[in-house]
Amino acid sequence: MPSALTERYLSIKQSIPANITLVVVSKFQPIESIQALYDAGHRIFGENRVQELMEKQPKLPTDIQWHCIGTLQTNKVKYIAPFVSLIHSVDSQKLLLEIDKQAKKNNRVIDCLLEMFVAQEETKHGLSFEEAETIFSSTALSNVRIKGFMGMATNTDNKEQVQNEFQTLAGFYKKHEAQYNLEYLSMGMSGDYKIAIEEGSNMIRVGSIIFSEKLKV
User: What is the CATH number of domain 4-211?
Assistant: First the structure.
């Protein structure tokens, strides 16, 4: 019998299209819960904090793909460079160059997403479209692949606003997808992932509705 945790996970997994990559956000969750979802077949987990990522990674199976989805400081990159699978939160050219530097030291190529600012909310941050285009045109990278964009919509009950913000980023993604061989548009969290998928997201970051028994899938 699957546990309530794995049932909630499987419910979401089975409800989303096959082309959508599900990143299970495991911040603040115990090793046992992550292992349970691994045993249920899941392999992609996202963490917000470098310290927590470093503590969990050695204690769990080596074929887990760890995504760094939270704000990343340049001085912390070296700690996750040996193993991180995808960094969602690249919000400056300086950070991108540091990731490239640390990836080279570890003889790796690290995949990254540019974090884009599309929300009407001061707590959110990221690159403007102009800054992202400058990075594409002027940044020489040997050990980093920019694989797409990540964005967060405004935390609001106004569905139309959320749709518009996701549409704006999806349009920018489509504009550059072929030219730069992009693969991922990471939009949508527990509260708005269904809207994000409707608007073109192919990667969602979902945690609370999987781990919390109080929330309905």
Answer: 3.20.20.10
In whole angstroms, give the CA distance from residue 81 to residue 3: 34
Euclidean distance between CA atoms 47 and 28, whole angstroms: 9
19-72 confidence digits (pLDDT tens): 999 999 999 999 999 999 999 999 999 999 999 999 999 999 999 999 999 999
Positive or negative: CA dihedral 91, 97, 102, 107: positive
- Measured over the CA atoms of residue 92, residue 93, residue 97 and residue 100, the dihedral's sign is positive
Kindly give, in sequence order, each residue whose CB lies less than 8 Å from that of residue 167, ignoring residues fewer than 6 positions away.
199, 200
> What CA–CA distance (Å, rounded) separates 103 from 16?
33
Write the single-letter amino acid at 78.
Answer: K
DSSP state of 47: E
What is the maximum span of the chain, computed from C-alpha positions, in angstroms?
Answer: 54
State the pTM of this model.
0.94
